[in-house]
Amino acid sequence: MRNTIAFASIGSFFSEKCGGEIMSRISKEQVKHVADLARLSFSEEEIEKFTTQLDAIIGFAEQLNELDTTNVEPTSHVLDIKNVLREDVAVPGLPREEVLKNAPDHKDGLFRVPSILE
Amino acid sequence: MSLFDHKMRDLHELLQKKEVSVSDLVDESFKRISEVEGKVQAFLTLDEENARNKAKQLDEKLAGGDSTGILFGMPIGIKDNIVTKGVRTTCASKILENFDPIYDATVMQKLHNAETVMIGKLNMDEFAMGGSTETSHYQRTFNPWNLDYVPGGSSGGSAAAVAAGEVPFTLGSDTGGSIRQPAAYCGVVGLKPTYGRVSRFGLVAFASSLDQIGPITRNVEDNAYLLQAISGVDPYDSTSANLPVPNYVEQLTGDVKGLRIAVPKEYLGEGVQASVRNAILEALKVLEKLGATWEEVSLPHSKYGVATYYLLASSEASSNLARFDGIRYGYRAQGAENLIDLYKKTRSEGFGDEVKRRIMLGTFALSSGYYDAYYKKAQQVRTLIKQDFDKVFEKYDVIVGPTAPTPAFKIGAQIDDPLTMYANDLLTIPVNLAGVPGISVPCGFDNGLPIGLQIIGKHFDEATVYRVAHAFEQATDYHKQKPQL
Q: How far apart are CA A98 and CA A100, in angstroms?
């Protein structure tokens, strides 16, 4: 299949070096920035690995650029549903003890977190 | 012979005639689990005490003559990303290792109303991200047909448990093929309903515009009964469709005379393994013999499905999985200095690599400066993919092809190669992007590993999908074969 062949060539692309550096569409610095946005932290070694893998996946995704999508409406979901409205009726929420049951830390009926202000 | 060799309708009759009790059915399940679960490892949690108590209650009702529904007393297994009140729900992730849901998913409410008995929660790829059930934080699940092979995924536990005879009925979820592909690999029947057919309330969200819950069973009729029970509009899910739910079983007539089948040439292309292609061509002959006709068509944008899917699904996932922050539920890392540090430590320790990879890809695709080039572009290609389907369905009743390009692969073979792993979903992903229903039914074997036939229908036309699947099933005996465990 064409796609499988494309994957294979991307796979071999991992190991191709260019002047001693792996060619990339995404830099380690960018990966660190994205990790920060995603509230994830990685070791240097993991950053290396994710940079290589994300680079390959993004490279693969760029095949979409073969298609001219000028004036094509984006699809966010497939149903002909727009806003679904209902009467604003007050109903009881979940009991507080139940809601706190799964919290790793809570006190006086509230979720407890580390200090936010320095 | 196992009680579960009977289809649901026959089990229902045996219950009515008092030849079998609900406790017998539940015993059968736990007996089989004790025999084979050590090899298959389909379950993450067994709910034995509750199941046995429920069975006793139902048997009392049965004695009083109060057991009208077809699902009454039926043992069922549930994928571990569907929340079950009071029964641990982990999504096979460390980050939810101790999560005890305080409400039931709508499908669980419906199953309780239908008086089924839940046996336990089933293994899956972490947060349904994967195609082999190998990304589960807790355990691997093994293909009952050959224990060296994966059961598929992400609903690998749901498919393997049915194939192994541990439970006759399960629910899975399907975002890019996660019901159909494991059903194909394990030789069972799995349906992804039309987007909006089944409420997603209480399904832990992965990609909200694609996710659907659906049934996995040994045969088409059981599958139709189960879908019937879980379908319908739900005030808690505003994307659930306000349409009547047809009687699917009534329409399993076995008659496909005059049915027009489209076979996309992209679905029998060069990357599809020869054994799979041959099995599909044989299946088409069977359908022809039954009076259907088929023609080759093109879904020209199919080859862009995988890239489109990984951008959109990962983008949605990066947003949906932001809720796992160690504050309100789930795992919390120790020793954090401040709130941001707590989020980062918790998420980095709590999520596995595949989940992190997709959160990273999604965050990147949605980030400032890249949104139009990746996310919006993928949404536009999604439109083109959907239009391909619309066009084919103007002339044809169903689309038929393989469920996956190959039978199951060996455990460990693809886990370090995300792009090859993603390619397994090539033939299932476009169905989710278009939002149409699709089923996988057994249609052959290659070296003892099952092959799945995929039948795809128009929006909300599960009835035709089932009718074709059932007619094929009745004309063949692949579904009657069972793995030797």
A: 5
Q: Does the CA dihedral B461-B466-B469-B472 come out positive or negative?
A: negative
B-proximal residues of A, 52-81, CB under 8 Å: 53-54, 56-58, 60-61, 63-65, 67, 69, 72-79, 81
Active site residue B480: no
CB B73 within 8 A of CB B115: yes
Q: Which of B154, B155, B314, B318 is catalytic?
A: B154
Closest by CA to B354, choosing from B332, B381, B321, B325, is: B321
Cβ neighbours of B316 in A, within 8 Å: none
Told to judge if B93 belongs to the known catalytic residues of this protein, a careful annotator would answer no
A9 touches chain B (CB under 8 A): no
ipTM score of the complex? Answer: 0.91
What's the pTM?
0.95
Which H or E run includes B111? helix B106-113
Question: Among partner residues B103, B239, B341, which is closest to A79 by beta-carbon distance?
Answer: B239
Spell out the per-residue pLDDT of chain B, length 485, in tens.
899 999 999 999 999 999 999 999 999 999 999 999 999 999 999 999 999 999 999 999 999 987 779 999 999 999 999 999 999 999 999 999 999 999 999 999 999 999 999 999 999 999 999 999 999 999 999 999 999 999 999 999 999 999 999 999 999 999 999 999 999 999 999 999 999 999 999 999 999 999 999 999 999 999 999 999 999 999 999 999 999 999 999 999 999 999 999 999 999 987 899 999 999 999 999 999 999 999 999 999 999 999 999 999 999 999 999 999 999 999 999 999 999 999 999 999 999 999 999 999 999 999 999 999 999 999 999 999 999 999 999 999 999 999 999 999 999 998 877 777 888 899 999 999 999 999 999 999 999 999 999 999 999 999 999 999 999 999 999 999 999 99
Q: Answer whether A38 sits within 8 Å of B363, measured CB to CB.
A: yes
Q: How far is A20 from chain B (nearest CA, A)?
A: 23
Name the strand (E) or helix (H) holding B444.
strand B438-446
Contacts of A102 in chain B (CB under 8 A): 98-100, 102, 328-330
How far is it, in rounded angstroms, from Cα B304 to Cα B278?
25
